Amino acid sequence: MPLTFASSDTDALPLFVLEPDGLEPWLEGQDDPTRQWVKASGFSAGMGATLMLPGPDGTPRAALAGYGTAAQRARQRFVLAAAATALAPGDYRLANDLPDDRLETEALGWLLAGYGFSRYHDNAPSCAGLVAPAGVDAARLEILAASEALTRDLVNTPTNDMGPAELEKSARELAGAFGAAIEVTTGDSLLQANLPMIHAVGRAAEQAPRLIDMRWGNSGPKLTLVGKGVCFDTGGLNLKPGASMGLMKKDMGGAANTLGLARMIMALGLPVQLRVLIPAVENAVSGNSFRPQDILTARNGMTVEINNTDAEGRLVLADALVYGAEEAPDLMLSLATLTGAARVAVGPDIAPFFTDDETLARALADAAGQAADPVWRLPFHDPYEALIEPGIADLDNAPKGGFAGAITAALFLRRFTAGAKSYAHFDIYSWQPSAAPGRSKGGFGQGGRAILAALPKVLGL
After folding, report:
1. Are strands 91-94 and 50-54 parallel, antiparallel or unpaired?
2. 194 and 299 assigned to the same domain
3. How many domains are contained in the chain?
């Protein structure tokens, strides 16, 4: 179903959103039949509880939704989204006020509750409609929801239908929808264009590796987004065990999130010069796979010793980052499903990021709560630089020891960002392990809304 608000409140039922402490005061203002009905139904305004209120003829005249306690709400990102799928079909309008700092989040969560991945099977949830609450920018929230749906769809699609060629097709469709320019460098042309590490990682697959380069906007600050597009990661010759390979269709989650963020920026018409770079590859196994102990030379001339072919994402990102930094963007961001160490550090729900820019770090931290998109800063810890210097080459793609894996990966990427005026790297998971209100199990957007909310302050928009 389209993730949009109900078009009219003419026939929409009033929806009263109540906390447990507010239920009795609300009941005091109701007639006896309503009080008896609510009490007989056992409705206590617990989080996620709903109740239809019948009119004299037995048809619904209003509905109640439990908002839970403050402590309960602290554990849930989108509280009201639970009511969206629990209420009887139809359209509803809020009949009482929600806190101003929660209104936009709850309205967005309601829209996202309508998402289902239905490409192969009808998984569309039964979701009630909501009239856009007064005080929210309905058009903006619909853009955010549609962009999130794009990210989720891309991540959820398996690699047999979302390889490098299909990822390119999706990028071209997005570019066409918003009048963006797009160029794609494919196969051996990557070598001619001096993008050797993208070629090395992807050359073993049936679908050729490629670099997708999309541009939009002719004025304003330069914003470059780089998304990891590893459409499937076997681990290469350092083959992953089966249990670790099961979710590797999502290893292009960085690219999916980058395209979702790009869609938000273009649909909202932000005054920036946007560039999106996606190295799209499949890390496969064949006779010409790159090997452990190979030494690759990146676009900027730095040499990289390969100590694990399963640390391939940083290799393809490195060439793309150098390429993007050559234009001296005001802000360059990389998004990637890069390390398991990041998940060990903060779990699947938080997007850790790295930056040396204090203004950017503060803006992201402030924006995360506003956007219901939690992020957490991890350090570019300079003393760990020695861990990624093997001696035989400039850099090691997979330092031994297992310590600080997310930090050493981020330090590796930072080596390829010279020229960018400001840089941040997001090590995202892009997967919701189990369903929650407004968050279906599966592909998931992380970091994009926080970045979007931080851009005005960071770029002076």
Report:
1. unpaired
2. yes
3. 2
